[in-house]
Amino acid sequence: MLNPFKKSYSSQDLNLFRFLARIKLFEGLSYDEMIQFTPHMYLRSYKLEEVVFFRNDPSNALYIIKNGKVSMSIDINNEFHSLTTIGSGEAFGDNALLKDSRRIYTSIVTSDSADLYVVPHVNIQEILDGDPKIKAKVMTSFAEVYNQYNTNIFKAYRSSFGFFDLSQAYEDT
To answer: Is residue 2 in some structural domain?
Structure first.
């Protein structure tokens, strides 16, 4: 029997939920949990070579790429070196989930244009603080993302035959 009191979503909401479900931080959330984030997702358009944020900027927002490409780069001696380029359906700036964090890389749009959903840190914190179940799911996904980052660092170290000092990754900054 159909429940007449069950929340129904528009086709626009359902499309957004399917899109968010492809993103690691949101993949474990139900539609009823995802809807908590949607009022705080601001779509912003960027142009080729526009900087989304610089290294050491405050981590004030999470970014989700609707379309386009964004490079994650580090700056060494005033030159940018690309770490990776990501595209549609990927999130970056996930350290915005942490209180008082700063960016560890610079992000620059590498496609002619890019549309990014911007989710402010303050709104993310309100949602996580208000719903322990959502917080547990999102933070579990966040931990899995960072575990993958660490795995990749160790793979890079092994493949470089130890030509960089891995112990620096564990020093206090």
So the answer is: no
Write the pLDDT tens digit of every residue in 104-130: 999 999 999 999 999 999 999 999 999
Q: Is the residue at 51 inside a domain?
A: yes
- Whose structure tokens read 């139900």? 30
* Cβ atoms 73, 92 nearer than 8 A: no
Structural domain of 30: 11-162
The two three-digit tokens of residue 129, written as one number: 């603080």
pTM of the model: 0.86
Of 55, 120, 113, give the one whose Cα is nearest residue 88. 113
**Within a domain: 110:** yes
Measured distance between the N- and C-terminal CA atoms of the chain, rounded to whole angstroms? 59
Report the number of distinct structural domains present in the chain. Answer: 1
How many angstroms from the chain centroid is the CA of residue 131?
Answer: 20
Cβ-contact 135, 21 below 8 angstroms = no
The pLDDT tens digits of the residues spanning 84-94 come to 899 999 999 99
For the chain, state the CA radius of gyration: 18
Q: What is the CATH number of the domain that holds 45?
A: 2.60.120.10
Average pLDDT, the chain: 89
SS3 assignment, position 21: helix
